[in-house]
Design goal:
By secondary structure, the protein is α/β, with parallel strands linked by helices. Helices cover 28% and strands 27% of the residues.
Length: 303
C-alpha cells in the first residue's frame, strides 16, 4: 500500500463527490502536461504568447510541443480547483476574514469543473463539489468548526491522493496560519508527494501569530511547495490583504498556458525527468516563467 493509502487509514476523511458527471479531458497516457505562468516585472500575467515562443527541454533533449492553449477557453482541459483551509484553533481570531476571502474566490471561479475543499485541524475532511453544488460548498466553508491542532501535511497528502485520478489542469490554493503540529506525514514526505504530482500550488501563509523563527521556517516550507509546482507563495500582513491575494491568484489561473508534448524518451523506468521550459521571445524584457521542475516517467515492470 502507498504512503498516501496508509494515511487514509490514519486520518478521518469524509468524501462528498458530485453526482453529475463532468466532461473529462484525456490526452493519452503518453502526453506530458505542464501548466505555465508568465509574468512581467510587476507580476502581471503576460498573454498572447504562441507555441513557437516556448522551448521545452527534457533531460537535455529538446521536445516538440504538440498541445498548447492559452487561458481558460471552452476547449481547454477541465480545471480542477482545490482549496486547503486551516481550521485549527489558532485560526479563531482570523477565520472570518479567511472564510470571506475563500467564498469570494470560489464565487468568482466560473471555469472550474469542480472544487475540492479540504478543511484541516486535528482531523482532515475532504469534499468535492461541482458548480451546481457551490451553495453547499459556501455553506461548508462558512460553518466549519474551528478547533484543534494543524495536520497540514496530512491534508496535503489526502488532496494529492484524490487529485491523482483527475484529468486536466489541477490548481491548489493552500491557506494556513502556522506550521504543522499534528500530521502523520513529515515535511519531507509532503515534499516528495508534491514533487511527484502535477498540481500547481498557490500557498497563502498568514504567519503573524508565529514567532519570528517559526514564521521564517514556515515561509520556507510554503515557498518550496509553490516553487516545485510553478505556483506562488503569498504572505499577507493582515486579514484585510486576503482579498487582494486571492484576486492575484484568480488572475494567474485565468491566464495560464497549458502545454503538452510526447516525450522522445520511451523508457518506462519511473525515473525523475528534469524539464526546463524556456521563453524564446528576446523582445520581452524582465518577464519570468513559472512551471513545475519535471515529472516522474511512467513505470512498468518487466516480466
Amino acid at each position: 500500500m502507498s504512503r498516501i493509502g496508509c494515511l487514509a487509514l490514519l486520518v478521518f476523511v469524509t468524501i462528498d463527490y458530485a453526482a453529475a458527471q463532468q466532461a473529462t479531458f484525456r490526452a493519452g497516457v503518453d502526453l506530458v502536461n505542464f501548466g505555465v505562468t508568465v509574468v512581467d516585472k510587476q507580476g502581471n500575467p503576460v498573454g498572447g504568447l504562441k507555441p513557437d515562443d516556448f522551448e521545452v527541454v527534457e533531460n537535455g533533449h529538446k521536445q516538440s510541443v504538440q498541445y498548447f492553449i492559452e487561458g481558460q477557453p471552452d476547449l481547454a482541459p477541465p480545471l480542477h480547483l482545490g482549496l486547503l483551509l486551516d481550521t485549527s484553533g489558532s485560526m479563531a481570531e482570523d477565520i472570518d476574514a479567511a472564510r470571506k476571502a475563500a467564498v469570494k474566490f470560489v464565487n468568482s471561479t466560473d471555469r472550474a469543473s469542480d472544487v475540492t475543499l479540504v478543511d484541516f485541524a486535528t482531523q482532515v475532511s475532504v469534499a468535492r463539489f461541482n458548480p451546481d453544488d457551490y451553495p453547499r460548498l459556501v455553506e461548508r466553508i462558512r460553518m466549519g468548526k474551528v478547533d484543534g491542532m494543524t495536520a497540514l501535511y496530512d491534508a496535503l497528502g489526502m488532496y494529492l491522493n484524490g487529485a491523482e485520478t483527475q484529468d486536466g489542469q489541477k490548481v491548489l490554493v493552500l491557506y494556513t496560519d502556522g506550521g504543522d503540529t499534528r500530521s502523520s506525514l513529515t515535511y519531507q514526505d509532503a515534499l516528495d508527494l508534491v514533487k511527484a504530482s502535477d498540481v500547481t500550488i498557490y500557498a497563502v501563509g498568514y504567519l503573524q501569530h508565529e514567532t519570528s523563527s517559526a514564521a521564517l521556517q514556515q515561509r520556507q516550507f510554503l515557498q518550496r511547495f509553490a516553487d516545485l509546482t510553478g505556483g506562488q507563495a503569498y504572505f499577507p500582513m493582515g486579514p484585510k490583504d486576503l482579498d487582494g491575494v486571492f484576486e492575484k491568484i484568480q488572475k494567474e489561473i485565468a491566464a495560464r498556458y497549458s502545454l503538452g508534448y510526447i516525450s522522445n524518451d520511451t523508457r518506462t523506468d519511473g525515473a525523475w525527468r528534469s524539464v526546463e521550459i524556456k521563453l524564446l521571445r528576446r523582445d520581452l524584457k524582465g518577464v519570468r516563467l513559472r512551471t513545475r521542475a519535471g515529472y516522474f516517467a511512467p513505470y512498468k515492470t518487466t516480466k
